[in-house]
Design a protein that fits this description.
Length: 294
């Protein structure tokens, strides 16, 4: 089924199971039901769906007696950092490097800093989104052809006030104050130090990284709030129904046939890209569901 928006989940009169999945498709309302209902709308939209599904048995939002649904939004402290050199970088599939040397800290800063990798190769089009004009006549396309493009990820910490909410009309509101920024700043500085230690290039010698600009040029940009690619944490799992909405199998503590299987369940964002963890957890919960249904 495509182009279908789940608007709300309705429960039986006891409030203990989801009895209807209310869907809007091509302007028409449809209803579905199942023995087990799995929400997997992503951390922002799954939280919004549960909040939107409030009823008299779940006045604070479905499965939200703990008041954690929508809270602890995390999305990583991310930056893209470009190092521009005289050598062109003709690579297409660049995501081949990861550096975790500073994940848990370093001698001069014994706290976690995060993870360094390459970001998918930037081009002039992607740079239009925010790169500063750095030199007259130096087009964004040329800049991209000469750049090594790094992706820096640091952990942001679970903060109850960083949250997904709904406004009066049911629209999503995301309220977020970045935290844990010092480690991220230090990680960027570490990368710059490493780049400064590189040896001469075979083609341009020591001039490689000095030719186009007076010195190596690093352009760094923090990913702003709208960059919600790594959204997680909004329907956290745990053993205690007072402090978590899902149990260790990602079943809602308060609803017997409702599971949430996406980035919502994280209690901590870690400092690595989230998709593989989300997939691994989905396989784990899948095994549990097979057992339950047999
Ligand atoms: C540009 C970009 C690059 C990324 N690169 C990486 C990377 O390199 N490595 C990595 O690990 N991660 C990466 N991510 C993050 C990764 O894609 C996400 O963490 C992951 O896909 C989240 O999985 P999810 O199951 O939580 O939600 P999603 O994959 O977002 O799935 C949610 C689905 O639910 C649908 N949906 C939402 N609300 C409703 C509703 N009410 N009714 C019906 N359907 C609904 C959405 O349309 C969507 O299809 C990237 C993300 C972006 C945007």
């Amino acid at each position: 089924m495509t182009d279908a928006l789940v608007e709300r989940l309705e429960t039986s009169s006891s409030g203990r199971e989801v009895s209807k999945v209310v869907v809007r498709q091509n302007g028409a309302r449809e209803e579905f039901s199942g023995d087990v209902v799995v929400a997997s709308c992503g951390a922002i939209n799954s939280a919004a769906l549960l909040l939107r599904s409030a009823n008299d048995k779940h006045p604070n939002g479905l499965a939200n007696g703990s008041d954690v649904v929508g809270r602890h939004y995390m999305g990583h402290v991310n930056s893209v950092l470009m190092a521009i050199s005289k050598c062109p970088n003709p690579t297409v599939f660049q995501k081949s490097l990861s550096v975790n040397d500073f994940y848990f800290g370093s001698k001069d800063f014994p706290y976690p800093m995060g993870h360094i990798s390459f970001v998918g190769k930037l081009d002039g089009e992607t740079l239009k989104a925010g790169a500063p004009a750095i030199a007259p006549g130096f087009t964004l396309e040329l800049m991209a052809q000469h750049s090594l493009d790094f992706w820096l990820t640091s952990e942001d910490l679970p903060e109850p006030s960083n949250r997904v909410m709904l406004d009066r009309d049911g629209n999503i509101v995301l309220s977020y104050q970045p935290n844990n920024k010092e480690g991220h700043k230090r990680l960027g500085a570490k990368l710059k130090d490493l780049m400064a230690q590189q040896r001469k290039c075979a083609m341009h010698g020591h001039e490689c990284h000095q030719g186009l600009f007076a010195r190596n040029l690093y352009i760094g940009q923090r990913i702003p709030l709208a960059g919600v690619a790594h959204q997680n944490g909004t329907i956290r799992f745990g053993r205690d129904p007072k402090s978590s909405a899902l149990d260790p199998n990602c079943k809602a503590h308060e609803v017997d046939n409702l599971y949430v299987v996406d980035g919502s369940f994280f209690c901590s964002s870690g400092a690595v890209n989230p998709a593989l963890t989300i997939m691994a957890n989905a396989l784990r919960v899948g095994d549990h569901l097979i057992q339950r249904m047999s």
